[in-house]
Amino acid sequence: MAHTVLYILFHLLFMSSYSYVQSTEQGFISIDISDKGLDFVKDQLISKAISTLTPLQLPQIEKSLTIPVVGRVQFTLSNITIYGVGVSSSTVKPGETGVTIVATGATANLSMDWRYSYSTWLIPIAISDEGSASVQVEGMEVGLTLELKNQQGTLKLSLLECGCYVRDISIKLDGGASWLYQGAVDALKENIGSAVEDAVSKKIRDGVVTLDSVLQSLPKAVILGDTAALNVSFVSDPLLTNSSVDLEIDGLFTAKDKVVISSRYDRNFQALGLCKSPDKMAGISLHENVFNSALFVYYDANLMHWIVDKIPDQSLLNTAGWRYVIPQLYKQFPDYDMNVNISVASPPLVKIEKQNIIATIYTDVTIDVLDAGEVIPVLCISLEISASGFAEISRNSLAGGVRLSEFTMSLKWSEIGKLRMHLVQSVMSTILKTVVIPYVNLRLRRGFPLPLFDGYKLQDPQILYIDSRIVACTDVASVTQVNLNQLVQNS
Ligand SMILES: *[C@@H]1O[C@H](CO)[C@@H](O)[C@H](O)[C@H]1NC(C)=O
Ligand SMILES: *[C@@H]1O[C@H](CO)[C@@H](O)[C@H](O)[C@H]1NC(C)=O
Ligand SMILES: *[C@@H]1O[C@H](CO)[C@@H](O)[C@H](O)[C@H]1NC(C)=O
Ligand SMILES: *[C@@H]1O[C@H](CO)[C@@H](O)[C@H](O)[C@H]1NC(C)=O
Ligand SMILES: *[C@@H]1O[C@H](CO)[C@@H](O)[C@H](O)[C@H]1NC(C)=O
């Protein structure tokens, strides 16, 4: 239950591949990430990388060196540990083959133990000394290029290139006759440098594999309740322009246990860059067919019927309350309790227009008289209801509400003769306004969960209605640090 559109945003957006080829498939849900969003993802990645990078143990280094006075000895550096990494500046840039992240001016602090020993048949007494050292790595550059491709609906992340370059190292020895060996240890700079380069590159490769497994483990469908599943498969490779990364997600609801043979919705549209606000990190756009497919699924599952037996004005559920509206009903069933059977007659239709959401709903309203446990339908009225709606984001959910715009009605059948429809109309209006619309709103207010990873939240979302779509332009903020391994386990 806890996964939906935005759930994906973060996994999915760890990176995206560059592609000049226009994607052919369009999704009903699109996510556009702006430069600002990419920057945010990059910063999150780097801070996660740093926290998983340290402490990092490097392999022992051995080298034979000449030490003044002592002569040629075997020098060993062991327990080499990177315990701190700092990144002063970093960039993320889409390139022709993939997205490149470069961290420049990175620093690393290492600690290590050093020792040497020396003995020959000439001098049988072993000469040795040992101590510890701290190493400061300066001006380290780390670069990697990532590619993200659609692979049967999930995203496949691969590392195209990765490099780490250490520009300068300074070593400070403690213990032993440090002054004596400083020069010797300085000769090991290059070895330490390449050990750091190798270790960091390997760690990045491992990290990308971990991230990829996070992506692979994302569900292709998000189950909502007992009935519906939202198809969150990717329909094409991520599409990169020079100012955004676009992800296309199928975005249609299907019945939870049903295999859908063909799509009833036309995919012929273009929805790039709907969020025109470059100071927002992402635009999440939902086509009206996302909602229409959900409504269809619930309709098809026979869930759009309900029997109203409690209303604010309970007198409307007794024939006495209808005495003046339908006198013959009262005559035939004096003071009988009633209920109202509201039954949606075809899948409701949602249209998103500029500044507005319009829903059209055809329902049959059957009035039942209750006679000692027996339900006697007495008349049925067909309604065509127009409602206008709005969407909002509250606490990481997409919620909304509807208002009754207008309705028209006609008598479908009657067991009690002709009705004066204008009188019935006002009762119907009361029932719609006091029962039906509040009921629908109660449901809608619960919303459609857009959970992020634990530790992230939507910030200052702004909702736009554009061209058959609802677009949420939003920032994302991290609430706490996220542990990558935990993500793998959770997904
Ligand atoms: C490795 O170094 C750390 C800190 O410098 C020290 O606490 C630890 O005892 C050392 N381990 C060994 C096996 O010498
Ligand atoms: C490395 O050590 C220096 C001095 O000891 C300190 O100023 C710096 O913040 C440390 N850097 C990291 C990344 O731990
Ligand atoms: C991005 O591409 C558009 C046209 O495709 C161009 O007008 C614009 O200058 C480009 N922006 C950058 C920053 O390269
Ligand atoms: C989900 O969408 C993908 C891409 O449109 C499609 O190939 C797949 O069959 C859909 N899955 C279901 C269960 O409808
Ligand atoms: C409610 O009305 C529909 C037709 O409008 C009918 O099919 C259904 O059986 C009725 N439900 C009940 C419980 O009477």
UniProtKB/TrEMBL annotation:
Residues 33-258 form the Lipid-binding serum glycoprotein N-terminal domain. One of its GO terms (molecular function) is lipid binding. Transmembrane segments: none annotated. SMART domains: BPI1 (SM00328), BPI2 (SM00329). Keywords: Glycoprotein, Signal. One of its GO terms (cellular component) is extracellular space. The keyword Electron transport does not apply. Residues 276-474 form the Lipid-binding serum glycoprotein C-terminal domain. SUPFAM superfamilies: Bactericidal permeability-increasing protein, BPI. CDD domains: BPI1. Residues 1-23 form the signal peptide. Belongs to the BPI/LBP/Plunc superfamily. BPI/LBP (TC 1.C.40) family. This is BPI protein. It comes from Escallonia herrerae.
